[in-house]
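Milestone M4 deliverable, item 7.
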Amino acid sequence: MRRAHDASPRVDWPTRKRQLRALQTMLHKYREPFAKAIDEDFGGRSALETDMLEVFPSLGNLKHALRHTRRWMRGSHGWASLWMLPGRRALIPQPLGVVGVIVPWNYPLLLAIGPLTDALAAGNRVMIKVSEVTPRFAEVFASAMAETFPPEWVTVVTGDAQVARAFSTLPFGHLLFTGATSIGHHVMRAASEHLTPVTLELGGKSPAIIGPGARWEHAVERIMFGKLVNAGQTCIAPDYVLVPREKLDTFVASARQAAAKLYPQAVDNPQYTSIVSARHFERLSGLASEAVAQGATSHELFDTPAQATRRRLPPVVLTGVHDGMRVMREEIFGPLLPVVPYDNLESAIAYVNEHPRPLALYVFDTDNARIDQVVDGTISGGVTINDTLLHVAEHTLPFSGVGPSGMGGYHGEIGFRTFSKEKPIFRQARWNGAGLLNPPYGKVFTTMMRLLLR
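Output delivered:
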């Protein structure tokens, strides 16, 4: 792939357009096989949820790229600054070469197609490592890519964690990893061997703050929606909720009503997603039981018990939690929702800031001053106000983390620029005054420097 890029480094708009349209056609053609494979890998995930969470945003991102890439490719041109006249300057985006993408299991289609779209729009060749946790999807996706693109343009790599480790050591032009913060350390360390630039989309504990002026039922419903789609196996799902202390019991009752409305009889509802593996099911069960053993109270939102054989885990709200519990230290990635009471908005903001910076933050209130107080007083990868998850679906906004939740970003124009080298160019005019600064330095030079240093 590197040799193919070096042989033809300039990728024109017709070629990029043709590739993006091919990807668009492939998504429509394989929409049902992808959904079926993901359903089998999870042991139960509705095709309707795959359409909403993976296919729809993938197609939206492609349409956005097709509409705007030609303009992004132009770069910028103009006159140089005053003392560099009559020279001209330009900033020209160029492909980096071969981009590597490491895809997680929770949204295997979306988190492969999103970076692929941006990298192809930027004129790159792309190598994708899909997760071994979703083997059926990996097989279908690799076949679809091989049918759509020649291997020197797009290559899909399958295999276990050892393959992923080897993949992250390759000398890519850029490497994008989406996954756990703990694995992000290893990916960045491996990439540093070749000084490969990285974009890391990690996880962490994304808070939802219900302000004192929030529309209560709306806030609880949207938080439960964000928590329960894909059974909470979402990197930007609300990981815990901060509520006014006097509303703690009310939240539990409202969450139970909202969950029943969204997913009636959760474990027996075919639209409610299973936990992806027995290991993850056991991990989530352990987080809940350990929290209860350490003093938390578990509020099951449904009467139906968990079904370990089918990996069906009904949602649970946890109160009485503290930072000594694993459920409050680790990213949950499942339908467990701790609730933390606060006495005033300042203390809620302080609580968020006392912990690692999250990938997402959600604030619910009708008062813009309070909303601004939360947004200005915290640092997070992204924010959605009076809803959850939706900032990631907006193609004009980058998807990005900060600190332990990641670095760099992609989506839309930001993604195009992430996977491009914006080359600065200065074009000197035939007739110019640069020679006035040549040595030997005399009176003319001294006069010129006096002017330049004013």
